[in-house]
Structure formats: structure tokens, C-alpha cells
Amino acid sequence: MGRIVVSENVTLDGVFESVDGPGDWLGCVDAADRAAWAAAGVREARTATALLLGRRTYEWFVARGWASRPGDWADALRDLPKYVVTGTGLGTPTWANTSALTGDAATGCADLARRTDGDLLVLGSARLLGVLLARDLVGELRLTVYPIVVGAGTRLFGDTAATPLRLVESRTVGTDLTRLTYRPRRTT
């Protein structure tokens, strides 16, 4: 059985998406931190079994050329099977190894996790994260916290119901980024 692992970038005040779109706060850290962040992304992708994405996040990656972008991180993501949770369909996927998961998102993700060995890595996909948390399907939550307060934008957890978590790892990435890893604190 697989495990759903969510990996997100957030600001100190919990913003996931800026008012201008998906958050890109790399400008607030130096080149060494950006390189450390990218190396961590490559390692994470190489240890995953598949990507699990919401439709909007999938379209964001495609629009930015990840299907043909050069580099280790793009190669690692390109090689992974990609499952896109969508209620509207995808048409013909333009990123190799992509399949659509239609129907009830929670049921589809739970079924995929049951028939997969290893980690299903979720990047972005805030709406999907809400569904996964509500149905207790997240096995691990990894937050890379950027040292910036932006004040406005979409909060990662929005109206998510209370979800008890326990910290299992805390480390720096480069010198200014913090990586916090949580697992659900389940009562059963």
C-alpha cells in the first residue's frame, strides 16, 4: 500500500499562493538556498513512486514547460507516472506518463494509494490537499517555509477542519529555508 505525501512551499504567514498566482518566493533567499531547495526537490522526486496532482497544478506545470524542461528535477518529475485528479477531464495529456483520475477525488486517491507501493507525491494542489486532509488520506505533510511574510494570498489550509499532526523532522534547507515534516496524529 502506498502513502500520500504532500510537499508544499509556504510563507511564514501560511500563504501558499500569492495574489498573482502560485507562490514563488525564491527571490527572498540567496542562490545557495535556491540550489539547496532544488536539490531537495530532486531527491524528493527520485524517492517517489508517482505524482498525484490537482488539475490546476498539472496545467501550471505544463504551461511552464516541465514536460520538456532540461535539468535533474524536470527529468525526475518527467519519469514519474502522473495522476491528475480532475472533475472536468484532461483531454489528451501533454506530459508523458499522465493519467486522469475522475470521479470522487477522495475515493480515487484512496484506491490509487491501495494499489501503489511507495509514495504518491502531491505538489501544489491546495484544493486536493483539502480533500485529502478531510478524508484522513495524508500520510505525511512536508512544508518548506520561506522567510517572508506576504500578508495577502491564498492560505494553504484555508477552511480545513482541525487536523492534529505531529512533527517528525525539522531541518534547514540552505541557510534560510526550513523544512518541517509532519505525520497525522491518529487516534486509532
Question: Can you walk through the features of this model?
Answer:
The protein has 188 residues and is of the alpha/beta class. It has a single domain, classed as Dihydrofolate Reductase, subunit A (3-Layer(aba) Sandwich), CATH 3.40.430.10. 28% of the residues lie in helices and 34% in strands. The strands form two sheets. It has an eight-stranded mixed beta sheet, with helices on both faces. The protein has a three-stranded antiparallel beta sheet with strand order 3-2-9, with no helix packed on it. A hairpin with a 3-residue loop joins strand 10 and strand 11. The chain is globular, with a radius of gyration of 16 Å. It starts with a strand and ends with a strand. 26% of the residues are buried. It comes from Actinocatenispora rupis. This is Deaminase reductase. GO terms for molecular function: 5-amino-6-(5-phosphoribosylamino)uracil reductase activity.
What distinguishing features does this structure have?
Dihydrofolate Reductase, subunit A; 188 residues; DHFR-like_dom_sf; alpha/beta; 8-stranded mixed beta sheet
The total number of structural domains is 1
User: Over all CA atoms, what is the radius of gyration?
Assistant: 16 Å
Shape call: globular
**Biggest sheet architecture:** 8 strands, mixed
Q: Mind telling me which CATH architecture this is?
A: 3-Layer(aba) Sandwich
Total beta strands? 11
The low-confidence parts are none
Mean pLDDT across all residues, rounded? 90
Strand sequence of the main sheet, in spatial order? 6-5-4-7-1-8-11-10
Structural class: alpha/beta
CATH superfamily: Dihydrofolate Reductase, subunit A
Indicate the proportion of strand residues: 25-35%
